[in-house]
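User: My collaborator sent over this chain with a note saying "see what the structure looks like." That's all I know about it. Can you take a look?
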Amino acid sequence: MNKNFLVLIFLIMVSANIFAYLPRGEMKIFAVTSTNIGMDANLIIEIKPGTGRIFSNVNSQIGSLTQESERNSVIAAEKVTPLAKGKYDYFFEIQSNASSIDGPSAGAAMALLIVSMLNDKDLSGKVSITGSITSDGYIGDVGGISAKAKRAADVGIKLFMIPIGTRRQAITTDSGQSQVVDIVDYAYANWGLKIVEVETVDDILVYSKMNIEDIDINSIVEKKEEKYYPEKIEVSYGILPMRNLVDKYLISAKDTLSKTENNINTSTIKDSSIVQSLLSLVDYSKESIVSAEENSKNNYLYTSANDAFLAKIYLITIDEIVTNPSIISSDSTIYNIRLQEIDKRILATENRAKLCSLDNLEWCIGAKQRIVWAKNKIEEIKSTKSNNSGIDKIMNYSYALAWI
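Assistant: Without extra context I'll predict from the sequence alone. Here is the result:
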């Protein structure tokens, strides 16, 4: 009798442990307006016994990206709580004043809320996150992080998670100027908000189980993604001209990068969203330069030159905008002058390319090809000029200039 009683108690305890979950959860999620002002909405999820079906119920028109985020968040959350797989149905609701809801940036919040609910953890309106989510549980970068973090602090959030590698953010100061800060340190010192970087849903699970008071942001070391580079190969003396070209590219790119970073920090651009975009281009430039250096060491010279070339394009774009912020406007006089200048440079380069000896035939063929690419890019820019504004048009111009 006693033995049966103990078995019954054990089964009850095991069952409670397996199926203990919060049937309803709610979390603040954040977005930014077209003027880079943070705004909040309410994410509500209900979990009911079922077979893994997903339902959306929003008071706005829901887009395909948001629906994809819902599916990815369920798959990712169930990967770290495998006992729940296929046993529940999920009901999503986003309460917002927006007329339509679409985009991936709430995906990580959906995963965070589901993970906490399946682990019977009530986050009590003190924790949130921004970022996209993949089905295999990786947190992706999104825009407007500093504005979202500020809004999170204003509505009482105490712990805010952001995608890994995004702690360097541009903010707008009280004087209306844009300033580049470490958002992890800045948010805690100025808003009392703890911010941590997360890479995967596993990181989310760890932080969702911790007491916020126990999280020391100063002890968290920024993770760096490891890159794969192929093994070194041997090359002949005949490839020396390419080696010299790569070395020249790298020296130029690193020198330009140093100057560009300083120019951003001292720029007069007031729109922090533009500065944030430029910071992203700086990061891309750094990654390209590192890749160029590693590939150069291993004698993958064409790949190295291409990496350095991409860095050059990013840096040209940044320099143009920092030097002349008005150039990104749709009716920019400076931009029109730039297009006229590049037309002249294309013509001059075409004339130079006619003087081609047999010794340099390969180089001349490559040069003529790049002239064609530059001309095509400029024609594309001119044909869409009426709706050509923002950073993208400067990037297109930079491609043409770099090819020349």
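A starting point for your reply to your collaborator: The chain has two domains: 20-219, 237-403.
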